């Protein structure tokens, strides 16, 4: 059959728009096409009449007005802002765009492009094996650190995990300088102390409560995207206070089509935070840099694979949990047929009378049928994947073998031998093993935290699981965390390497926030948060040297 040839050539301009959309997803908007606008203009110039015939005609049913058509378009002003251009470009169309705005957004975007005159200073005396390690722990403002990392790490970070302030009304957030110099801004705002810290308590009574948080996170995510590899991933912990606003910002920065999943996580199994409903969970958002990103699937837990047959040497053990027939999906007549095994005939649902009625057309929308086609059943019988038990047909699920299609008519199926892999689900982190209670136990065991130095630290089990999802063991993948806190990410990377012999590297950034004099951390001898993180990393290294099950590569 001859294909119909389009009468128009490909649009080079539209191809360029799509390329720009991949580089700058936040600049993509939808605008009406010119044809719709011109047709509306024509309609308004039609003269009206007052004749009786015209009046009678107007009583006839009118066709609905044509809906305007839209196309993807690049907002040149947004593009200029991202490129650091100050001038306003004239817009060809005035249109209502879809987007998320707040007071100070333009200044926040511009801040990501501001050049800084700073550098990184090595600290040999506090390092562990400085000459050979590939890990980095940076003390300082994370916005400055992200800009400095662009010099050597642009497009090189495979995975980012951050746990930013949740903006609960009692959190500190960074107050970035937009219009003035950093020193001028901090002096006028009165927020810097004797150590030069520039973060303030963001009260929910403040007029710009949400805007301040959005302005803090936006430029950091923009810079983070530049650091990711083309197949990179970013995981972000957040709760209901800013969840929906963070989704809007991430959709803009990374592109809505690069959203992968939102994982709910249990924070505590018991207790309540309000009198209305106990809030016992938060979330982990997952976005990709592009459609090249792939999650690393882990081997499936096969502890319940306990049955064996003549194929055990090559296929491993198997289990029988699925019958071949089912009645939970839409009825399909092609999957409703008799199967003969060893002289015995089987029907879906095990009732010949009901089978006869279905064949006569008397079936429900959801009714009995087989899960496999007849060709697949014949192949499964021939190769030992089908068995009869208690007068029902079951299919075997092996540890290391499955049936796959070949796409050829002569031999449509084959047996594939490989370890069964588990597909992640959005409910993976609802187990108490990933709760804050577990985090407290881990810190207590590691740094003798008997008094609650970190009340809201994420558990190493959570971050290590995310590291396993977002990286591969032996590719030298870099994991970045620029809200390091107690350095959970460092421990997660080191323990992941110890578990599988990997060579992942971490880069952590943390502002040296002072520990309040009466806090548990200060009572334990820590002057700022960075001291806690560095001590934790040293403890983990020492622990792994003594107890690591596998050789840990990738630095000290």
TrEMBL record:
Compositional bias ranges of the Low complexity kind: 41-61
Domain of life: Bacteria
Top-level enzyme category: transferase
Protein EC: 2.1.1.72
GO BP field: methylation
UniProt-annotated stretches for the region Disordered: 38-68
Keyword annotations from UniProtKB, A to Z: Methyltransferase, S-adenosyl-L-methionine, Transferase
Boundaries of every DNA methylase N-4/N-6 domain copy: 157-497
UniProt key word Methyltransferase: yes
Family matches, as Gene3D superfamilies: Vaccinia Virus protein VP39
Reactions the enzyme catalyzes: a 2'-deoxyadenosine in DNA + S-adenosyl-L-methionine = an N(6)-methyl-2'-deoxyadenosine in DNA + S-adenosyl-L-homocysteine + H(+)
One Pfam family per UniProt: N6_N4_Mtase
One GO MF term: site-specific DNA-methyltransferase (adenine-specific) activity
Entry similarity comment: Belongs to the N(4)/N(6)-methyltransferase family.
Protein's name according to its UniProt entry: site-specific DNA-methyltransferase (adenine-specific)
Taxonomic lineage of the native organism: Bacteria, Pseudomonadati, Pseudomonadota, Gammaproteobacteria, Aeromonadales
């Amino acid at each position: 059959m001859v294909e119909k040839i389009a009468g128009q050539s490909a649009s080079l301009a539209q191809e360029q728009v799509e390329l720009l959309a991949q580089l700058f997803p936040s600049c993509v908007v939808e605008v009406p096409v010119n044809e719709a606008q011109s047709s509306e203009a024509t309609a308004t110039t039609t003269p009206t009449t007052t004749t009786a015939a015209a009046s009678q005609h107007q009583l006839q049913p009118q066709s609905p007005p044509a809906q305007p058509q839209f196309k993807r378009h690049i907002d040149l002003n947004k593009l200029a802002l991202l490129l650091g251009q100050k001038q306003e470009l004239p817009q060809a169309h005035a249109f209502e765009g879809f987007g998320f705005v707040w007071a100070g957004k333009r200044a926040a975007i511009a801040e990501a492009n501001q050049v800084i005159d700073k550098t990184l200073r090595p600290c040999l005396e506090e390092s562990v094996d400085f000459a050979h390690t590939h890990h980095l722990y940076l003390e300082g403002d994370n916005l400055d650190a992200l800009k400095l990392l662009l010099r050597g790490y642009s497009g090189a970070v495979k995975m980012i995990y951050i746990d930013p302030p949740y903006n609960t009304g009692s959190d500190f957030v960074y107050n970035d300088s937009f219009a003035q110099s950093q020193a001028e801004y901090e002096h006028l705002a009165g927020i810097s102390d004797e150590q030069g810290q520039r973060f303030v308590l963001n009260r929910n009574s403040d007029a710009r409560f949400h805007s301040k948080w959005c302005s803090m996170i936006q430029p950091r995510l923009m810079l983070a995207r530049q650091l990711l590899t083309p197949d990179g991933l970013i995981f972000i912990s957040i709760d209901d206070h800013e969840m929906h606003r963070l989704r809007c910002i991430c959709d803009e920065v990374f592109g809505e089509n690069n959203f992968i999943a939102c994982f709910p996580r249990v924070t505590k199994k018991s207790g309540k935070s309000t009198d209305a409903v106990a809030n016992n969970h938060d979330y982990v958002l997952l976005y990709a840099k592009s459609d090249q990103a792939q999650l690393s699937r882990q081997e499936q837990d096969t502890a319940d694979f306990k049955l064996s047959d003549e194929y055990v040497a090559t296929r491993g053990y198997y289990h029988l949990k699925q019958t071949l027939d089912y009645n939970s999906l839409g009825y399909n007549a092609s999957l409703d047929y008799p199967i003969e095994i060893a002289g015995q005939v089987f029907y879906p649902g095990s009732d010949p009378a009901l089978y006869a009625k279905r064949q006569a057309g008397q079936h429900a929308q959801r009714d009995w049928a087989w899960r496999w086609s007849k060709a697949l059943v014949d192949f499964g019988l021939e190769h030992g994947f089908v068995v009869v038990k208690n007068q029902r047909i079951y299919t075997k699920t092996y540890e290391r073998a499955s049936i796959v299609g070949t796409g050829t008519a002569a031999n449509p199926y084959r047996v594939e031998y490989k370890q069964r892999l588990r597909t992640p689900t959005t409910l993976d982190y609802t187990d108490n093993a990933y709760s804050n209670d577990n985090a407290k136990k881990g810190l207590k065991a590691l740094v003798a935290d008997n008094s609650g130095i970190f009340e809201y630290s994420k558990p190493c089990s959570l971050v290590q699981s995310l590291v396993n999802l977002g990286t591969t063991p032996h590719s030298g993948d870099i994991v970045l965390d620029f809200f390091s806190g107690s350095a959970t990410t460092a421990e997660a990377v080191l323990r992941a390497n110890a578990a599988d012999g990997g060579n992942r590297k971490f880069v952590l950034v943390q502002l040296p926030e002072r520990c309040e004099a009466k806090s548990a951390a200060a009572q334990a001898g820590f002057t700022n948060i960075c001291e806690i993180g560095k001590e934790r990393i040293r403890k983990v290294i020492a622990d792994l040297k003594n107890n690591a099950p596998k050789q840990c590569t990738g630095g000290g």
